[in-house]
Structure formats: structure tokens, C-alpha cells
TrEMBL record:
<protein>
    <submittedName>
        <fullName>UBN2_3 domain-containing protein</fullName>
    </submittedName>
</protein>
<dbReference type="Pfam" id="PF14223">
    <property type="entry name" value="Retrotran_gag_2"/>
</dbReference>
């Protein structure tokens, strides 16, 4: 029941639209970790070969448990996306496949994105209508984005 409440709370906020991938990615990481489903974003399990041995039955049971949890992880990811994106990703066979495809589509590690972050940082000037607190928050956000993109700022910057 608590899991459903967490998903409902997240859905009240912004779903993944494509432009908010970074924060959505963090929220999903926290949520799936809390649900003990994070491993499904990093691993894939293949169906074991059928057999009549005790080990074969155990392997099949482990796979079925993993598969059920993977479907739950996929459902959670899909339920936290904008309606327009769901159809583009519901075909993914596993949560990891979906997670990787989303990172490829919306992750911000391209050279163009990094250049735009650096340019935005270098061109930024305090808006007179913003308070100093707001100015520092904006600067802090830009520095954090650059750090997350593994861009080292020079002393001059």
C-alpha cells in the first residue's frame, strides 16, 4: 500500500516529458531503490532451460520471481511518464532495456549539451529582479549540472 502512495505522490508532480530527464531520473532511482527494484535497472535475467531436476525448478522459480518484479519496475517507470511517451517505451522487454533507452534518448551527456551548459554558465549574469538567494540558487544549479556532466571548471570560470 505504501508503494502505491509513493507512486501516486510522484505522479502528482511532473512526469517524464523529455526536458526534465535529470530530475526524473533521480526520483525514479530513489523510488525504485525504496521498492527494492533498483537491481532491475542494472541487470537482466534470462529464462533458464527447462528441466526436471531440483536445480532447474529452483532456477525457474527464481526467474519467475525476478520477472514479476521486473514487470513492476517497468510499470512504475511507465506510470511516471507523460502520456505521449508511454507508447514509445511500453514495448521494452525489461526495465533495464527501458532505462537504457531513456538514458540514450534524454540523457544529457552529448557534446552539444555540455557546450550549452558551459556557455550558459559563462554568459550568466544576475537578473536585477532576482534576490541574491535566487541568484546563488541558479548558480549552484548550473555548477551542479556541469559537475554531473563531468565538466571541470577552470579557476577563471
Amino acid at each position: 500500500m505504501a508503494t502505491k502512495n509513493i507512486i501516486a505522490d510522484l505522479n502528482r508532480g511532473e512526469n517524464l516529458t523529455g526536458t526534465n530527464y535529470d530530475i526524473w531520473h533521480k526520483k525514479m532511482t530513489f523510488l525504485l531503490n525504496e521498492q527494492e527494484l533498483y537491481e532491475h535497472l542494472t541487470t537482466i535475467m534470462t529464462r533458464p532451460l527447462e528441466g526436471n531436476t531440483v536445480q532447474s525448478r529452483r532456477d525457474l522459480k527464481v526467474f519467475e520471481t525476478w520477472s514479476k518484479k521486473d514487470r513492476c519496475a517497468r510499470f512504475t517507470l511507465l506510470s511516471c511518464m507523460h502520456d505521449d511517451l508511454i507508447a514509445a517505451y511500453e514495448h521494452c522487454a525489461t526495465a533495464k532495456e527501458m532505462w537504457d533507452q531513456l538514458r540514450f534518448e534524454f540523457g544529457r551527456t552529448s557534446v552539444t549539451w555540455i557546450r550549452s551548459l558551459v556557455l550558459k554558465f559563462e554568459m550568466y549574469k544576475k537578473d536585477p529582479k532576482n534576490s541574491m538567494t535566487e541568484h546563488l540558487r541558479i548558480m549552484s544549479t548550473m555548477i551542479r549540472e556541469l559537475k554531473n556532466a563531468e565538466v571541470a571548471l577552470s579557476d577563471e570560470q
